[in-house]
Write a sequence for this structure.
């Protein structure tokens, strides 16, 4: 099994979400949770961006004992120096530096040339190496960068001392096979690629961040950059819980992670509460409906054998047990199950009669609750008594 390095950027890319800003105390608390979760690298912030972010990176560096602490910088000497300063207490510091490599960035943002950007990429890595031997280089917008040029940049930054090379699909543009082919191209065309770990950093603009990251590791990448609940710029980043569970559920891929999956749901809630950013109910792994069954066909199958409609045991991801939700699409077995859970022992004939009443209630509201069931049972039992 190849261990995939889990690089969490909830506190950096995730915190860039409007309204998700965290103070230093909140960031340190979340960093300690992330360390307990088992992430290998915590990107703690962008130290030059504000005094508050500098302080957060500094305090996280003091508090965290095991995980690598990473600080972001642009390919600018001052940024790198400030990142190194913020990381000086870290047991295992990493400087993450880089520059845009697509024509959009080279021409539009920098009004520059490929050769100039290549030189700046090499210089920033060399400069960062003065402070730590753990340097990650990002080729921003690598997703839309020409592969031949990208390979030249990656070869040169590895020669300059980069130990991880990040291939971000910054705009979430790539299709999974394209992103996988990009990583494979680097594996096959960068002569010194074995000297560095390739990292996938995918955004979710087309809903493909998770698929692209998995395509990336299948093609040879060794690190995934991700966030709890998929938080991040615009439509977000690769969701940590999704890639970790894909790796766990598809063992035949030959990958493993150091994540304690039982912490996924509890930590998702902590991040959501701290960042005041609700999780969509249908979110994979951590959404409130991720283990809810509401249609009759599914409920019947699930009640006979949970695996019929569930590929993950909720216990494995620290979620509440699976729920049988009663709606107008539910069937008799779900109704009987819910009555049983409330302590009623109705036989088949009772359930047949109650089911007609249930459908009338269910058609008039979105969900039939325990209170509705108790009321139905009360009315039914009273009628029975009168008849008897
Ligand atoms: O999406 C991106 O390209 C980034 C880099 C700064 C790593 O977040
Ligand atoms: Zn990003």
């Amino acid at each position: 099994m190849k261990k995939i390095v889990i690089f969490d950027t909830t506190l950096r890319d995730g915190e860039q979400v409007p309204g998700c800003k965290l103070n230093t105390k909140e960031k340190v608390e979340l960093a300690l949770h992330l360390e307990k979760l088992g992430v290998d690298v915590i990107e703690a912030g962008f130290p030059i961006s504000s005094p508050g972010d500098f302080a957060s990176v500094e305090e996280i560096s003091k508090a965290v004992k095991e995980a690598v602490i990473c600080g972001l910088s642009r390919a600018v000497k001052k940024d790198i120096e400030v990142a190194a300063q913020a990381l000086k207490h870290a047991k295992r510091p990493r400087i993450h530096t880089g520059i845009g490599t697509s024509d959009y960035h080279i021409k539009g943002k920098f009004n520059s040339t490929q050769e100039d950007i290549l030189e700046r990429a090499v210089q920033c890595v060399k400069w960062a190496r003065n402070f730590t031997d753990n340097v990650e280089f990002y080729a921003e917008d690598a997703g839309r960068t020409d592969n031949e040029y990208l390979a030249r940049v990656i070869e040169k930054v590895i020669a300059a001392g980069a130990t991880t090379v990040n291939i971000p699909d910054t705009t979430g543009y790539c299709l999974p096979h394209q992103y996988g082919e990009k990583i494979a191209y680097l594996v096959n065309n960068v002569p010194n690629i074995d000297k560095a770990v390739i990292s996938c950093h995918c955004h979710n603009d087309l809903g493909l961040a998770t698929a692209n990251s998995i395509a990336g590791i299948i093609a040879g990448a060794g690190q995934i950059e991700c966030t709890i609940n998929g938080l991040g710029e615009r439509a977000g980043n690769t969701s940590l819980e999704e890639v970790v569970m894909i790796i766990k559920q598809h063992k035949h891929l030959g990958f493993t992670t150091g994540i304690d999956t039982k912490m996924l749901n509890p930590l998702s809630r902590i991040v959501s509460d701290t960042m005041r950013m609700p999780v969509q109910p249908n979110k994979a792994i951590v959404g409130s409906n991720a283990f809810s069954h509401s249609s009759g066909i599914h409920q019947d199958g699930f009640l006979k054998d949970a695996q019929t409609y569930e590929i993950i045991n909720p216990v494995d991801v620290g979620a509440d047990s699976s729920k049988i939700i009663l709606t107008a699409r539910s069937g008799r077995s779900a109704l009987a199950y819910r009555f049983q859970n409330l302590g009623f022992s109705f036989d088949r004939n009772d359930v047949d009669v109650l089911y007609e009443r249930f459908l009338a209630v269910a058609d008039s509201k979105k969900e039939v609750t325990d209170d509705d069931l108790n009321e139905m049972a009360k009315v039914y039992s009273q009628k029975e008594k009168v008849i008897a």
In short: The first helix runs from residue 24 to 37. The mean pLDDT is 97.
